[in-house]
Amino acid sequence: MRLKAVVLAAGKGTRLKTEGRDLPKVMREACARPLLRYVLEAISFIDKADTVIVAGYKKEDVMAAFGDYPFAVQAEQLGTGHAVMSARQLLEGFDGSVLICYGDMPLLTRETYEALVRTHAAEGNDCTILSSSSDEELPYGRIVRDGSGSFVKIVEDRDCTAAERAIRELNTGLYVFEAAKLLPALSKLQNNNAQGEYYLTDVPAILRGEGARIGICMRALGDEIIGVNTLEQLKQVEDILRQRGAC
Asked: What is the pTM of this model?
C-alpha cells in the first residue's frame, strides 16, 4: 500500500494565547514538547518524505522545528478543505492513499492511525472516516447514516439541526482517501455554510454522490479523541500524557 500523510498545522490557536506566548497552535507544548511532535511520532510508520505538514500562522516557527519534513503553506485559513488544497501540488500524480490528520490531536495513538489505514485497505474504500463517540461535550461534526447504517454525510457541529446534534457518532477529522479521488473532489467544494469556509467534511458526501466507496472505522477512542483548542484542554491533555508516562 502506497501511503502519504497530510498533517493540518496552520491554525493560530487564538484561545490558547497566554501573556507573552504567541505561538502557532501546534507549537504549544504539553510535557515540554510541541503538540505536533506527538502526532508526527504516532504516524512515523509513514516516511518523513511522504508526510506533508500544512503550515500557516507563523509558519516559520513550525518549519524551523520540523525542517526535515516537506511543507505546504496555507496563506489564508479558509477551512480544512482549503488546507488540504494547499498541499495539492505535493499530491498530484500520486496514485496511493492519503492519511489526513491534525497537528493539535496529540493523544491519538499509532495503533489508532494504523487501524484506520488497515480498514481502508481491507475494505477497498475510496474514503475511510475515523469515527467515535465521547462523553465529552466536543464541537465535532456528526456522522449521518441512512436506515441501513451506510454513510450519508458529515454535518459540522455549528451547522447541525437539533436532531443532528443529538447524534452521538462523532467525526474525529481523520480520513484516508485515495489520492485520485480526493483531488478532483476538492475542486468541487463550496463555502456555502455558517463559516464561509471550505470544509473537508463535505468531500466524503461528494464522493458518495459519484458512486465512490465510503467506509467508516468506528473505534472506542476514549480520551484519544480530545484535541487542543483551549488552555483548559491543553492542561487536560498534559495531565493525560503524564498519566501515560509521557512526561
From this structure: 0.94
